[in-house]
């Protein structure tokens, strides 16, 4: 099937369309319903009647945007009318929800009169926290937006005008920097003089470009003062009329630094690109076919052509989804009265800054594993980059507060963390640990220091103030890789082959001479195996923690730390723990990586260690020893082990958190079963520490929860070691390394208390 057939199937699959309404409060009991509707709903109604701003407290108004269109200028389709535009408006709602967790009602108005559209939207003001105007033709769109901004007290934003302006503006900031040109000196030519082109030209002036340096062309050629005087152009185009001779687009482009295409495909030739100034900036944004193709523009010049289009199959896509969800997120969260120019500029500058940062692995994978690094082919962040939310929305919120558009003041540092939590519970939980790590950073040795991911992780760890990373490996290779990645930092490197590490070899020999290692072999291991080198480094106190395992199987990566560092004095067995996060629940799963067939003493030890780990995440543990039996319902050696472990823990005065077992998994996590059938249990709430009876069940269980249950996983985190060591999984992403480095730092902080 082609794209059209696939899309029709996508939209008609039951339920039809792309959006639905869901409830956010429980509606399971009679009391729930009496609170949601009559008689309980009267209380918030009366509060709002007394103070209308309480609508933001008691209703969804503060997270609800109206997407309003009459379907007169649908991208690529033209005037198709209100009803036919509904799939587009539903799609807009999907993007709001997916990227910024904003709810949307799409409203299609079968009306062409701007006055009636304005009056209709004004009447709906009590419903919404903001209005996104969409696909309304020019020049009516200008009038509608201007009047609504004046006449209603919530933000109004016409994305067709301002979205392209803001996103291409962020690209212009970076492109000009790469080309070594100042914004105020840029000679800019526009092809197209519709709503988007005029808004974009105005926005470039807000960024620092000179209005007199902007030449705008419509279908009749250059917009000149002579044409304006003859009444050939409307009032909106007239602002950019220049006192120059009449001519066509080719004349305008000669010697220009920047071409901005918001018109039709195929109207720019290679000769026109060749006529531009050195290192030209070409934004050919007509869709689906740009004014000139990407390859054509690049091949037209021997120098650098910095190229952007509206297409996703080429670098530097100017995609409005980088703007509107996050602009509204920031505006809604400070209860802004408008989206003003300062807020738009703040968005563009935040996006430009983000493009200069190292790109997460998940984003790279989403785009076919092609390198994404700041430069001519990467001047705008990708829409799927999760960091856009907590970079742009706070910048917009701050601009709203600074400019007087905000009705609520917020703590921007706390706000960024709140936004990050919207991306998933695991981010919220990791933020607890990251913040703890930053209060007292420790030194973390990174084995496999020549690995690109380790180097990128070291950069982020150092940049964020999480830890003091030491990369173990060849110093020249590490520094060369860091430079090739464009990472602006000087890595701390421990090079086993170039440093004076004789004492490390001697120490390894002392520890393992009766375990089959000779003096010569100890020297070779220190020089060639970064796992042994890092383990000795930590054992000797030259680093506080170790991360390894990125390119090794888990058992082989774990072996050197166990041989050199070992378990804590009061612990006989290490264990691997995963933190699994769901939408409204967090569980720690153990043991998933180390102990194959633990007895009751090992199970008890693993439970203690996992409970301690939970508290590092500020979670009070409630532990369940799992089995296929409930409290003696099956009696055999397999069920007795978790039962005896639970009793050992219950009898231990040093265990200060509730523990029970053996119990089935659903008993442990379902409140009705736990409190109803097994009300005698020591757990008064569902368990958040799940201890599996053996490695096989633990590994299977956590993977099923992750893959079928939709859980996000952090880990594995190694507990029970004498000093902090964490073994990564092969193929882990940079964010996983950074997360485990933070856990290791908090471990080290605990060790020193």
Automatic annotation (TrEMBL):
Family, as annotated: In the C-terminal section; belongs to the phosphate acetyltransferase and butyryltransferase family.
Signal peptide: none
Coiled coil: 398-425
GO BP terms: malate metabolic process
Domain Malic enzyme N-terminal as annotated: residue spans: 16-149
SUPFAM superfamilies recorded: Aminoacid dehydrogenase-like, N-terminal domain, Isocitrate/Isopropylmalate dehydrogenase-like, NAD(P)-binding Rossmann-fold domains
Name of the protein in question: NADP-dependent malic enzyme
Species in which this protein is naturally found: Natrarchaeobaculum aegyptiacum
């Amino acid at each position: 099937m082609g794209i059209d057939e696939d899309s029709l199937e996508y939209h008609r699959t039951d339920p039809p369309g792309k959006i639905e309404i869901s409830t956010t409060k429980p509606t399971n009991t009679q009391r729930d319903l009496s609170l949601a509707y009559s008689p309980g709903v009267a209380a918030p109604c009366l509060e709002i009647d007394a103070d209308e701003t309480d609508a933001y407290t008691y209703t969804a108004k503060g997270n609800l945007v109206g997407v309003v269109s009459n379907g007169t200028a649908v991208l690529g389709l033209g005037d198709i009318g209100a009803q036919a535009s509904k799939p587009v408006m539903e799609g807009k709602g999907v993007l709001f929800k997916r990227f910024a967790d904003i709810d949307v009602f799409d409203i299609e108005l079968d009306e062409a009169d701007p006055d009636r559209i304005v009056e209709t939207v004004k009447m709906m003001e009590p419903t919404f926290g903001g209005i996104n105007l969409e696909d309304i033709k020019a020049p009516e769109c200008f009038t509608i937006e201007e009047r609504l901004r004046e006449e209603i007290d919530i933000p109004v934003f016409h994305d067709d005008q301002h979205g392209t302006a803001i996103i291409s503006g962020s690209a212009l900031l970076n492109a000009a920097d790469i080309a070594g040109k100042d914004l105020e000196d840029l000679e800019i030519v526009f092809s197209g003089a519709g709503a988007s082109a005029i808004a974009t030209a105005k926005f470039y002036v807000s960024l620092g470009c000179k209005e007199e340096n902007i030449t705008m062309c419509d279908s009749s050629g250059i917009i000149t003062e002579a044409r304006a005087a003859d009444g050939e152009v409307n009032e909106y185009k007239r602002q950019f009329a220049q006192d120059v001779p009449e001519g066509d687009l080719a004349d305008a482009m000669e010697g220009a630094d920047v071409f901005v295409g918001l018109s039709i495909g195929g109207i720019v030739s290679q000769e026109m690109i060749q006529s531009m100034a050195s290192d030209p900036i070409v934004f050919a944004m007509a869709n689906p076919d740009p004014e000139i193709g990407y390859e054509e523009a690049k091949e037209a010049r021997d120098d650098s052509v910095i190229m952007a289009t509206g297409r996703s199959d080429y670098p530097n896509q100017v995609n409005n989804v980088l703007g509107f969800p996050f602009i509204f997120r920031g505006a809604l969260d400070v209860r802004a009265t408008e989206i003003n120019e300062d807020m738009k500029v703040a968005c563009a500058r935040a996006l430009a800054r983000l493009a200069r940062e190292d790109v997460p692995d998940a984003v790279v994978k989403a785009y076919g594993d092609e390198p994404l690094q700041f430069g001519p082919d990467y001047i705008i962040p990708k829409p799927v980059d999760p960091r856009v939310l907590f970079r742009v929305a706070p910048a917009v919120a701050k601009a709203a507060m600074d400019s007087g558009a905000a009705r609520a003041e917020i703590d921007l540092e706390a706000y960024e963390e709140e936004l990050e939590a919207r991306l998933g519970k695991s981010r919220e939980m990791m933020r607890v640990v990251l913040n703890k790590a930053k209060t007292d950073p420790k030194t973390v040795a990174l084995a496999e220091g020549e690995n690109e991911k380790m180097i990128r992780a070291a950069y982020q760890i150092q940049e964020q103030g999480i830890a003091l990373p030491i990369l173990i490996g060849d110093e020249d290779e590490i520094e060369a890789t860091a430079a090739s990645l464009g990472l602006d930092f000087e890595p701390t490197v421990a090079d086993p082959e170039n440093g004076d590490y004789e004492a490390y070899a001697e120490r390894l020999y002392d520890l393992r001479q009766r375990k089959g290692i000779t003096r010569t072999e100890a020297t070779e291991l220190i020089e060639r195996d970064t796992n042994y080198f890092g383990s000795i480094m930590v054992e000797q106190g030259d680093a506080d923690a170790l991360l390894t395992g990125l390119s090794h199987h888990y058992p082989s990566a774990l072996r050197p730390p166990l041989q050199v560092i070992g378990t804590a004095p009061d612990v006989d067995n290490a264990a691997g723990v995963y933190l699994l996060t769901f939408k409204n629940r967090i569980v720690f799963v153990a043991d998933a990586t180390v102990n194959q067939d633990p007895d009751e003493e090992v199970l008890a030890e693993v439970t203690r260690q996992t409970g301690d780990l939970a508290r590092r995440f500020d979670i009070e543990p409630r532990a369940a020893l799992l089995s296929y039996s409930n409290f003696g319902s099956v009696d055999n050696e397999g069920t007795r082990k978790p039962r005896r472990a639970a009793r050992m823990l219950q009898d231990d005065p040093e265990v200060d958190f509730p523990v029970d077992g053996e119990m089935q998994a659903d008993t442990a996590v379902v409140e009705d079963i736990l409190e109803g059938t097994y009300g005698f249990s020591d757990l008064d709430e569902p368990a958040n520490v799940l201890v599996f009876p053996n490695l096989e069940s633990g590994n299977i269980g956590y993977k099923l929860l992750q893959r079928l249950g939709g859980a996000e996983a952090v880990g594995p985190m190694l507990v029970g070691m004498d000093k902090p060591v964490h073994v990564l999984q092969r193929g882990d992403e940079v964010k996983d390394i950074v997360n485990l480095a933070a856990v290791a730092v908090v471990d080290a902080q605990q060790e020193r208390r």
